[in-house]
Design a protein that fits this description.
The chain has 14 helices and twelve strands. The protein has 463 residues and is an alpha/beta fold. The protein has one domain: Alpha-Beta Barrel (TIM Barrel), CATH 3.20.20. Strand 2 (189-196), helix 8 (213-222) and strand 3 (226-231) form a beta-alpha-beta unit. Helix 2 (52-70) runs antiparallel to helix 7 (174-186), helix 9 (239-253) packs across helix 10 (283-290) and helix 10 (283-290) runs parallel beside helix 11. Keywords: Golgi apparatus, Hydrolase, Membrane, Signal-anchor, Transmembrane, Transmembrane helix.
């Protein structure tokens, strides 16, 4: 009888355990079916939708590969077909735009971000451009002899201290442009300040990029961003050539819905042009273009605009005013490097601008390091301090209540000022810096945080 009772209890326990196990399996199956998208067919990458960043990167890589396959062939043909490829890609992806708008942070058109389209790789450009940046020698030969020479060798060795999540990309790759627009929109910036050289011209390490402007404008419009121009110090830049180039930009791109116009205090809507290294040209030349009585005056013409000069030294503020500029910006992300980039000088600069009817646009940045191309320039490195440097710069900018804040930069990788996503990477003897312990998008999130803070504080300024 005792053995019988033991066996009976054992059978009951076994049945209960088996029943519970079956119920557990059924519950798991039901949960998986609930999570599985209705549209998913057999063999779909189930679970990918639970990881939005991974899904985005996978879709990006698939699209990129398709575009790379289509982009093979003659280099000239690739360039001439670039706009049509981008337009077709956009048409295929326009349906979810409304949903996209709901998911992304609203753009802040008072946050302007510097953007560079000078990067190239063999798939789209037939060779690497800018990623293979040369090591720049020090101007003192005695110092220069103590540092390495040569140039970088992509894709493992690039001219940057950080490594992009998108790799050594081409600025002509439509999927890269779209990824950049989405990142900038995620950061709640509103205006892209596009580095620009006239047609046929480029910086000494790059190639002409004006043909890329229509594609940038199209993708910017998709993400409800605006585009203005950062006019670089091209050869023979003076009052006459500037007049013709401003006319060229407005005639060719001014009718695009993504072309930026700033509403002035008088209610006028005017294009805006940032003029890099403006101090190289003497005030008398600028005054020919930017004052009403100037011989090449652009004022009160269809090509009138807001022209923003670069302030480096304190004396430049008087030159800027005399030249007829409408405002000044500081560009450099190195606190203490120049008078203009030193946070403690912003209050006096803002006061000067207010008293002379000028705009003051401070430039904030996440840090600075350019030793990958200027190995002798350690003393100008500014550590990111896990985002604290960036937040300190924003805090200093908000204190002076500027109408616009500029951000240096989205993707100036050579100088380590980028907020674009970067990833840890080690290859051979090269160990790249990264954003750890934070994620690759930390600086996009910080920008979005300060964009919202700026909006709230600006409402109080205007009360």
């Amino acid at each position: 009888i005792l053995n019988y009772d033991i066996m009976a209890r054992f059978r009951r326990r076994t049945c209960i355990i088996l029943l519970l196990f079956i119920l557990f399996i059924c519950s798991i199956m039901m949960a998986l079916k609930t999570l599985r998208p209705d549209r998913a067919g057999f063999g779909d990458p189930f679970g990918l939708g639970l990881l939005p960043e991974l899904q985005q990167r996978t879709v990006l890589l698939d699209s990129k590969q398709n575009l790379l396959n289509r982009a093979q062939g003659d280099t000239v043909t690739r360039v001439s077909n670039l706009h049509s490829i981008a337009v077709n890609t956009m048409k295929a992806s326009m349906s979810p735009v409304k949903k996209l708008e709901e998911e992304l942070a609203s753009p802040n058109y008072n946050f302007h971000i510097f953007y560079y389209t000078w990067y190239g790789n063999p798939q789209f450009d037939g060779k690497y451009i800018h990623w293979n940046h040369p090591l720049l020698p020090h101007w003192d030969p005695k110092i220069a002899n103590n540092y390495p020479k040569g140039r970088h060798n992509p894709p493992e060795d690039i001219g940057a201290n950080f490594y992009p999540e998108l790799g050594s990309y081409s600025s002509k790759d439509p999927t890269v442009i779209e990824a950049h627009m989405k990142q900038m929109r995620t950061a709640s910036t509103g205006v892209i300040v596009l580095s620009w050289y006239p047609p046929g011209m480029a910086d000494e390490n790059g190639e002409p990029t004006d043909d890329l402007v229509p594609v940038v404008l199209d993708y910017a419009h998709k993400y409800n961003l605006k585009v203005t121009f950062h006019i670089e110090p091209y050869k023979d830049r003076d009052d006459r050539s500037m007049y013709h180039n401003v006319k060229y930009i407005i005639d060719k791109y001014g009718s695009h819905p993504a072309f930026y116009r700033h509403k002035t205090s008088t209610g006028r809507l005017l294009p805006m042009f940032y003029v890099y290294d403006s101090y190289v040209t003497i005030p008398e030349i600028w005054a020919n273009l930017l004052t009403v009585s100037g011989s090449q005056s652009i004022r009160n013409t269809p090509y009138d605009a807001l022209f923003i000069a670069l302030l480096v030294e304190e004396r430049h503020k008087h030159d800027i005013h005399r030249s007829g500029f409408d405002g000044m910006y500081t560009y450099f992300a190195t606190n203490g490097f120049s008078y203009g980039s030193s946070h403690h000088n912003w209050a006096s600069l803002k006061a000067f601008c207010d008293s002379n009817n000028l705009m003051f646009i401070p430039s904030v940045g996440p840090g600075y390091i350019d030793t990958s191309i200027r190995p002798w320039n350690n003393h100008n490195t500014r550590n990111r301090v896990n985002g604290k440097y960036y937040e300190t710069a924003f805090s200093a900018a908000l204190l002076v209540r500027p109408e616009i804040i500029s951000i240096t930069s989205f993707n100036e990788w050579h100088e380590g000022t980028q907020i674009e996503k970067a990833v840890p990477k080690r290859t051979g003897q090269v160990v790249y810096l990264d954003y750890k312990p934070h994620k690759p998008n930390v600086y996009l999130e910080l920008t979005q945080k300060w964009s919202e803070k700026y909006r709230k504080e600006q409402e109080q300024w205007l009360m």
